[in-house]
Amino acid sequence: MAITITMGIQKGGCGKSTTTGILGYLLSQDGYKVLAVDMDSQGNLTELLSKKPSNEFVQKSVLEAMQRLDPTEYIVPVRENLDLLPANNFLATFPRWIYTGVTYLGEKIRFEGNPSMILDETLEKVRDDYDFIVIDTPPSLSEQTTNALCASEYVVVLFECSNWCYSAIPNFMDSVDGARRHGKRNTKVLGILRTMNDVRRSDAKAFNEMIEEDYPNEVFQTIITRKAPIGRLSLYGFDENAELKQALDQYENFYKELMERVKGR
């Protein structure tokens, strides 16, 4: 039975897609069978892992998988031990479909049940096929995010060292609590990962310290600083990338911390 981990925060530019992709890659390199699920209509995780435009997955995405409550036809193998359930811009129509029962193609497919549990029910068909499922989420407290949280045992909260992200944390923590109360996975925060840290800025250092004071048991000790090879990972990907070791260096420390916490639960 797969362990499901969502990467989330309702602010953009915090490294959710990059972190999800790297975590999926590192797990697969460690011999685990992994499914990466893209729940963001921007499709950044899809493009990072598949190296294809997300629009190539129109009518072949996580949206159709949820509408049919079966992901098996929509899962794309991307490398050894790593599969992808892709997304594209039509995932933005997910809320409209939930509340009207009409798809973006005009089909009538009504979901009967708790609308926050659609992804959880969809993934149930393949949980036994994987060791880990990792989920990327959009920068909003949307139906997509709620479904990802309710489908997960664990959540990694992404914290970009800034005032706006600092103020977003309490509301996101409340959303995780809501998923634990209303979902079936006993959803918990696995940790807070501090990302996009600019070592030149004194305010970033201050926010790093503040979040550690507020959540001393949740923060990972690893802090991801801004590095060009990480930023260029979306361009070069994981294959034939001369900068890959530099891009993954800090994340490997985070991976070790994360796995220690998963195994210790």
Describe the protein's architecture and organization.
The structure is a single chain. With 265 residues, the protein is of the alpha/beta class. The protein has one domain (3-264): 3-Layer(aba) Sandwich (Rossmann fold). It is 42% helix and 18% strand. The chain has eleven helices and eight strands. The protein has an eight-stranded mixed beta sheet, sandwiched between helices. Helix 1 (16-29) runs parallel beside helix 2 and helix 1 (16-29) packs across helix 11. 47% of the residues are buried. The mean pLDDT is 93.
Low-pLDDT stretches: none
CATH topology: Rossmann fold
How confident overall, as mean pLDDT?
Answer: 93
**What class do helices, strands and sheet pairing give?**
alpha/beta
- Domain count: the total is 1
Please outline the major beta sheet: 8 strands, mixed
Instruction: Report the end-to-end length measured between terminal Cα atoms.
Output: 15 Å
What's the shape?
Answer: globular
Compressed to H and E, one letter per element, the order equals EHEHHEEHHEHEHEHEHHH
Please describe the topology of this protein.
Elements: E1 3-8, H1 16-29, E2 34-38, H2 44-50, H3 62-68, E3 76-79, E4 82-85, H4 94-100, H5 118-123, E5 132-136, H6 143-150, E6 154-160, H7 163-182, E7 188-197, H8 202-214, E8 219-225, H9 228-231, H10 233-236, H11 244-264
Domain AAA: 4-184
Pfam family, one: AAA_31
Protein name: Cobyrinic acid a,c-diamide synthase
